[in-house]
## 1
Amino acid sequence: MTRIFAFFSLLATLFGSLLGLSTGCNQTSDTKPTTGDPAAPAALATPRPGGRISGAQARQLVKDGALLLDVRTTGEFGGNHLNGALNIPVQVLPTQTQKLPAKDAPIVVYCLSGARSSGAVRTLTSMGYTKVYDLGAIRNW
């Protein structure tokens, strides 16, 4: 009986760990407050390049001159997109860098759900772009 209890206890612990890992992927911001106040709203926080940012942070970055990059397909982009966005599908991103600004210019990336934008951020970062921010899903705008 003790072995059965230990087995199910271990199973529950492993299952709980897996759930904890999957929910960690849904965090919306990897930011550090600039005010020194840990309770500072995300809109006042300085975004970390390569990290997920909020809609307010994305809007501020774009307002300050960042490129807004939509990495969905051209068909998705044609259906709807954020005003002022440049469309380069993630599948062809490495071959279309001539359309992008300098490697130290800020770029805000988005897609439909956040999966492609995350991959695009990794791709751009590995190519030497230093100020790439992940809005995630278009609905986060």
Note: Confidence is low (pLDDT under 50) at residues 4-40.
## 2
Amino acid sequence: MMGLDCQKILRPFFCGRFIIVCCSWALMGLTASWAAGEEKTLTGDSGDAIRVQRIPPLKGMKESPVIAAIALNLQAEEFAVAGDDHSIRIIKQSNGEEVAVLRGHRGWIQCLEYSEAQGLLVSGSNDGEVWLWDQKRNWKGIRIQRFSNGITALAFHPDGQRLAAAAFNSLPVLIDKSGLKLSQLQQGCLDTRCLMFSPDGKNLAAGGRDGRLRIWEVEDRELAQETPTLDAKLHPRRIHALAFSTDGTIVYSAGEDQDLVLYDRSNRQERSRITLRSLKALSLALISDQYLAVGGADNSIRIVDMAQKSECSRLVGHQGSVVTIRCRGDELISGSFDTTIRRWSIRRALEASEVDVIPITKKPGTDSSLPTR
């Protein structure tokens, strides 16, 4: 008879609809290879693949890092991932191969952003430092700014010449890529959790602990102080994630109150509010102007149909909070405190109400529960 552990592993994938006869030794080998950090491809009946990858521990370390940040380099078909081992991995999108490990930070890396225009990667950490990594110089890194407290949010301007940074208990600032401070954004939140430039680069949006959406006009100005042109209370609790519509007229916000809010900048009013039951939202990714992906502390990703104002699909399989999501074509790439990166077919997600993968039950080498932030 199949053991209880095997049944727990197989149940989410086969949904209890089939009677499975399998070799327990083969299953044990599969589970062991996942724990070792190898990438595996799980293919459904439609032929679409959901790939699961766990980053191997650094030399001398026993545990794989939790994944707190992902940034995509679309031109090079690579992505960067980082977390609690103070390091950044550059990974090929095609096969999951690790091509570089970037070291310099001395704390948990919370933020990664990539500038396609300049070929630069910026990172922010609990050590209070902002580092810039140059792809054209074999990922040479340099510290460009240091704050008194940990970095909570970063955003690259579309031109790649400037970026916005926020640290705990500090007002957000605009700096250039050398680290020179250009502007301090007045009347901001002292616990900003998300920053995002509009697609045209003329505006910067921010959200944080006080639940307020603030937008500053930045354009080409380099003023010593700037006040927000928009300041709206959208959530009763912390905002964790923001996204702009493709034309920049709509701002989407999500956080701890289970609501996804659509705010119309043109009319300066809330257009709609969608409640996502039992979800503390931690991450957002714009798929299109109709669909958004929302990652949460319940270990799931919700696909929301903005036209229907409802959740239309749910991606399950992560065993920890989904704190970062990126979209590339038909693919969603998600990172979690369960130490895994998962890659999902958007088309398959929209065809089914729920997409499951076989879960990895815990971090290798520990029995402790995974944290949420």
Note: The longest helix spans residues 24-35.
## 3
Amino acid sequence: MATVPNALDLKEGDKAIIRQMDEHLVSIGSTIFIEEAKKGRLNERLHRLAQCNLDPGRRDKDGRTPAIHAVIAGYGIGELECMWAYDLFDVADHNGDLPLHFAVRLSRLACIERLLWHAVKTALGKNAQGLTPIDLVAACGGKEVTERFCHALLCGYIRKGNAEEVDRLAPIVKQGSGECGLDSPAMYTHTTPLQHACWLHATACIQHLLRHGADPNVCDREGLSPVRIAASREDVTAVKALLAAGADPLRKDRLGYTPRSFLLKRGEALKPSPERKCMAMLEAGGKPTQKDWMGSASIPIPSSESKSEPEPEPEPKSERNYAAMLEILKAGPLRKDWMGSAPSASIPIPLSESERNYAAILEILEAAEGKRS
């Protein structure tokens, strides 16, 4: 039988060949997507097949989708990743078996993890015999399958933000072995459940995991600790919870940054430029032609107002005038900005929520570092 052409951008002749191949396979109870999934080549050839306007969800004579065949063949992760986009993880065969049912029966650990990561609800899907994948794990799953299933199920519920299920599963996962315990990394993402929760802003899940004994100082392959992740994600509540649970604010990542030094480095790159400050003044209502305290006009910008009849000049407002702003800054308390710098002779910008979070986290980490040193 002919093979799928290797060109990334197919010509019309190539597309016609692929459609003919698919028609032939459908006539014998299969599809080209299924055959490529069986051979572990669907991930690399999906782009070419997608150009032919074929249905990737078409089933074989037994009602099995390409996702089910990828699990059976054992080519798991890559094949399942490309199938996820087509919502095939919760499509069952004629017997009601989902891809997760097959993954449990065949002990496909990597497939179990990815299926639960993307479609955690399928853990409760019943087949024609009324059995869920959880029932199969309890009935015939060995120790390794059971522990990996529970660990993956916990990560799946964290991804969905289901704090109640996380609270229920965490003590079960804690009893697992070294490779599937509460502080063990997932096979594909290489992050622990606590690190998952920090990346995903799952604050309630973080609190449950810490309460059940998750280690707040376990780092991933890049040396990122949970508090380092939470700080970079601007999660003030998570940073407080992790520090209260004993997280080390001085722990460095592989590049030598502590959570606080990383924020300072990142914040320096995000510091507002003079141009941004000027534009913020104009967006707040300042006129492009209004002169500042040095007698210079603001940066001119296109404006519909400039094409119409000039309006009477309103009374200048102190907050829109450089000279008045300088007087305010001199007379009032010099409040430090989110980078820890005092106001200078420039128009300040109101702090965004992100900048307020940075400021709060920097203060928290500075205080925590002071206690450690």
Note: Confidence is low (pLDDT under 50) at residues 299-308, 314-322, 343-348.
